[in-house]
Design brief:
By secondary structure, the chain is α+β, with helices and mostly antiparallel strands. The chain is built from 30 helices and 33 strands. Strands 5, 6, 7, 8, 9, 10 and 11 form a 7-stranded mixed β-sheet that branches. A 5-stranded antiparallel β-sheet has the order 13-12-16-15-14, sandwiched between helices. 31% of the residues are buried.
Length: 960
């Protein structure tokens, strides 16, 4: 038998002999890694944190590190040629200092999942310990249930305290916990009566409980290991060295490890309290038994030596096998059950099972398989039995199962059943893996896919999935069909490329989209044109991203048809441009009207003085010709002013029913001599054209300006100018696209159209054509088209322009039709000079107008009293209204304007006679005063004859 033992030892030695070079190679490879991740500190120094935990590690009264762990570390440091520096710390501070790098290593650290996230452990444990509760003698505490409702002193981060909490919770024992900073304080709290029990590792309790008059209770729980620990990822080499030493030492019962363990734990010096009497009794019995055995052994030594050695070897092998099995059994992360194949009883479970299901070992061994099942279809007791039966028949089972924890919570697991027969009795081993997270993820994925599918199908936008590489469609929704006209049967399996469906109007758009997707993985707001099945072009706004389907990159795209939106946007932009242009023209019109108004006052003085001078000069006077020239120039200036007023829409209008065709016919001779000799006039006049109410002079100006501009556009080439008249019904949409759409009402409009075959105009020219002083001619005032616009505005009409560069331009003037028939008027013979008398009130804020107006009225024989504004005029009229024959009053004045003063005049004397003067058109003014008793209107600047024509009806009415 000794020979067998020697052989076994030699085999072990041989194994070590072969493994040692392999181990050294592994160490060399590990050392060849990055040095910065696992260096041994400055000059080979390792800083080791030592906290009070006798006899494992502590600082003695001389400040030296003592204990089992410091002895081991000093020995390893000596052999490995590095220096161990021991730093006194507390347990809590040690874990923090380890993370900050102020210490490199910490002994006596128990394993937990929370700590494993921030630190690495030695694979081999320094020692195996278990927790125990310590109490005062005679307190009656026998088991853990006696602590229900009582205070228990624990250290918050101590593994013994955590395990006690867990054990109490599993056994449904509710305790009140008193958290203390260290183990000594836990025992002191029990001694002071602040707690019924103190929880500590058994090793510490055996050494220190006597100091506090405490005794160990029968409450043992949760064995645990203590390890060496380092900051995560920083001390792999150091921990490997420690593992190597611990492994070799533990394999040899005579090693330094066991020598120091015996010193610190086996020697009576390490136990500061006396052994109980019962232990001495046991020792006495053991001594006597040993002595008896010694004598018996001498007698039977020769007979039983071989059997004893064989039995010892078998027991050692069996013990080692059991230890290996238990270590492997409890090391797995999956829960393991060992069932009796015949009865189904649970014979053994591992730690993972207890953690997963929430039972302790004693409870777990009392369970049946159905007790840890939800027992709802299809996970019922009958199904459990069937799976066990199938496993007994040598058919390994793999299935998903709805399990149940100790507190009733259901969760999904993956179960494997396998039958084996270690002896005469059969066994079934069940491995259980928690797949709750996977099932939740699968359910979340299923719900996500369902939501995506619903959103994909119901979206009104066009959604499709196509392959990134070739554009072949994999899936489309109804929105795609509605938008493109293509059905799923026509599209799926085909591509969008030109040689296939040819969806993209511009192939480079797809290439650009694909490039962006390859670069960024996602594209938002990509605008492109696509082709409908019927061949029409649409505009789409696309958003797309790259997704993976079965490992192949695909495009998930959403397209919104914005064709109508783009059309409306363009229309809105055009309308905004027209509004902006109209506002600009309106502002310029106000400016032009104001300038013309003041200019007319000046011209009135010039023309009035010219007429008075001509009346008073002899026919043969040499100055008469000069005055005639002054009058002619002033008249031209008045025409220019009238053009500005026409642009502002406030020119002088003499409104009458007119036939547009007849007006053009009467101008034929004038038009023919006004255009280029190479231009030909053509007319198209329909019969029975509806009349329009307009000023014939202003209409002639429109016609002449448009025809002359058409001739200029033709230039030196031959061309045609076509003048067409007619009538048409215009709706609001048609009028909105015209110039000067000031909410014109829909209805019937007469039109005059002037078309030429000239050079045409660009868009930017059309946009500015009606601006005052804008001209494309080398010479010219630029007021012609501005005046045309003003005249049309004053007549409540609109203008439409059609032009194409190189092909010609057409202007269409639209005027609302009138219900009044066209009348023919015979010109009156010139009247004789007026001879009047009486008092006349002249009101104007311009001194020059008052001055010339006084002289002109004096010329007719009237006496004149003047006022500079409406307020002054009202005061004069209030005092002298019985003597005042009539009032000649300006419309625009400060304080009170003409309209307000007129109202006051009528309040004072309802028979008051007033003639209003203004640079604005008569139609606008008379409409304001319709039915209010206005007796006349004079357009500034007026001449003597026009003044006489306005006064004469008043005098005739007075005579009657």
């Amino acid at each position: 038998m000794e020979g067998q033992k020697t052989v076994s030892a030699s085999r072990s030695g041989g194994t070590v002999k072969y493994l040692l070079p392999l181990y050294l190679c592994l160490v060399i490879l590990l050392c060849a890694g990055p040095v910065s991740a696992d260096h041994l500190g400055p000059h080979g120094t390792i800083r080791i944190g030592i906290f009070p935990f006798e006899p494992m590690n502590f600082i003695d009264e001389q400040g030296k590190a003592q204990g089992f762990n410091p002895d081991l570390l000093r020995k390893i440091a000596e052999d490995e040629n590095w220096k161990a520096v021991f730093v006194p710390i507390s347990r809590a501070d040690g874990l923090k200092l380890l993370q900050t790098g102020e210490i490199d290593l910490m002994p006596s650290v128990s394993h937990s999942s929370e700590r494993a996230e921030v630190m690495d452990y030695s694979y081999e444990s320094a020692l195996e310990l278990q927790g125990q509760a310590y109490v005062l003698p005679g307190d009656g505490i026998k088991n853990i249930s006696d602590l229900a409702g009582k205070k228990v002193a624990i250290i918050h981060h101590d593994i013994s305290g955590q395990n006690f909490r867990k054990t109490a919770r599993q056994l449904q024992v509710d305790c009140e916990y008193v958290e203390v900073p260290n183990l000594a304080e836990a025992f002191a709290a029990v001694q002071r009566g602040e707690a019924a029990a103190g929880v500590a590792p058994q090793l510490y309790g055996l050494l220190h409980a006597g100091k506090y008059n405490l005794i160990p209770s029968s409450i043992h729980f949760a064995p645990f290991s203590i390890h060496f620990a380092a900051k995560k990822g920083k001390r792999h080499k150091l921990l490997s060295q420690l593992d190597s030493y611990l492994t070799h030492w533990k394999a040899d019962k005579n090693s330094y490890y066991y020598q120091r363990l015996n010193y610190w734990l086996g020697d009576s010096r390490s136990l500061p309290f006396a052994l109980p009497d019962w232990i001495w009794a046991v020792l006495a019995v053991v001594g006597l038994t040993t002595l008896f055995s010694f004598f018996m052994n001498l007698v039977f030594k020769s007979q039983v030596r071989r059997q004893t050695l064989e039995l010892s070897a078998k027991e050692a092998a069996l013990r080692q096998s059991e230890e290996n099995y238990r270590e492997i059994f409890n090391a797995g992360s999956d829960a393991i059950f060992i069932h009796d194949a015949e009865t189904g009883q649970i014979l053994d479970v591992n730690q993972a099972m207890l953690d997963l299901y929430g039972y302790n070992k004693e409870q777990a061994l009392q369970l049946l398989a159905v007790d840890v099942s939800a027992n709802v279809p299809p996970c019922t007791e009958q199904e459990v039995r069937q799976h066990l039966k199938n496993a007994i028949q040598q058919e390994p089972q793999h299935f998903e199962w709805l399990a149940k924890k100790s507190h009733g919570e259901h969760f999904w697991v993956e179960v494997g059943l396998k039958y084996y027969q270690p002896g005469t009795a059969g066994r079934i081993i069940a491995t259980v893996r928690d797949i709750s997270a996977r099932k939740q993820a699968e359910e979340a994925l299923r719900q996500s896919e369902e939501k995506f599918s619903r959103a994909f199908k119901l979206s009104p936008d066009a959604l499709y999935i196509s392959r990134l590489v070739d554009g072949v469609y994999i899936e489309i929704n109804q929105g795609f069909t509605d938008m493109t006209g293509w059905t799923a049967e026509e599209v799926l399996g085909r591509s969008s490329r030109p040689e296939d469906l040819d969806v993209w109007c511009q192939v480079e758009d797809r290439e650009q989209l694909v490039t962006k997707l390859r670069t960024h993985g996602e594209v938002v707001g990509f605008e492109a044109k696509f082709r409908h099945k019927d061949g029409s072009t649409r505009i789409g706004l696309r958003s797309a991203r790259v997704i993976n389907i079965a490992g192949e990159p695909c495009i998930l795209s959403m397209t919104r048809d914005i064709t109508e939106w783009k059309r409306l946007q363009e229309k809105q932009r055009a309308l905004e441009g027209q509004v902006l242009q109209a506002q600009k023209l309106e502002s310029l019109g106000v400016l032009a009207g104001g300038i013309a108004h003041d200019f007319n006052n000046i011209l009135m003085a010039v023309l009035g003085h010219c007429e008075l001078a001509l009346r008073r000069l002899a026919t043969e006077s040499p100055a008469r010709q000069n005055i005639e020239q002054i009058k002619l120039s002033a008249s031209k200036a008045a025409d220019l002013s009238n053009q500005m007023l026409a642009y502002s829409g406030r020119g002088k209008f003499v409104v009458e029913p007119l036939d547009l065709s007849r007006v053009v016919e009467e101008m034929q001779q004038m038009l023919e001599i006004s255009i280029s000799k190479k231009a030909v006039l053509r007319y198209d006049f329909p019969p029975h054209l509806p009349s329009v109410e307009a000023d014939v002079t202003q209409l002639r100006q429109i016609i002449l300006n448009l025809v002359i501009n058409a001739s200029d556009a033709i230039g030196d080439k031959s061309g045609v100018i076509a003048i067409t008249t007619g009538a048409m019904d215009c709706d609001r949409s048609y009028l909105q696209e015209a110039w000067l759409d000031e909410n014109l009402p829909a209805g019937q409009y007469a039109y005059m159209e002037v078309a030429d075959t000239g050079c045409g105009m660009e868009r930017k020219t059309i946009d500015r054509i009606f601006e005052p002083f804008f001209s494309t001619k080398f010479t010219g005032r630029g007021l012609g088209m501005a005046a045309v616009l003003g005249i049309v505005r004053g007549h409540k009409g609109a203008i439409k322009i059609y032009s194409e560069v190189g092909k010609g331009t057409t202007f269409k003037v639209l005027l609302p039709v009138s219900a009044r028939p066209v009348e023919l008027f015979n010109s009156n013979n010139p009247a004789e000079q007026l001879q009047g008398s009486g008092l006349v009130l002249l009101v104007d804020d311009d001194e020059t107008v008052r001055s010339i107006g006084r002289e002109m009225l004096n010329e007719f024989g009237f006496d004149v009293v003047t006022a500079a504004d409406g307020a002054e005029a009202v005061e004069i009229f209030r005092k002298q209204h019985e003597q005042i024959l009539f009032a000649l009053m300006d419309l625009t004045m400060p304080h009170l304007d003409g309209e307000q003063a007129f109202r006051e005049f009528r309040r004072i004397d309802s028979a008051a006679k007033v003639i209003l003067c203004s640079g604005y058109n008569e139609q606008e003014v008379t409409q304001k005063f319709a039915g209010k008793g206005l007796h006349g209107f004079l357009k500034k600047p007026y001449q003597l004859s026009e003044l006489q024509s306005a006064i004469q009806p008043l005098l005739d009415e007075t005579i009657d």
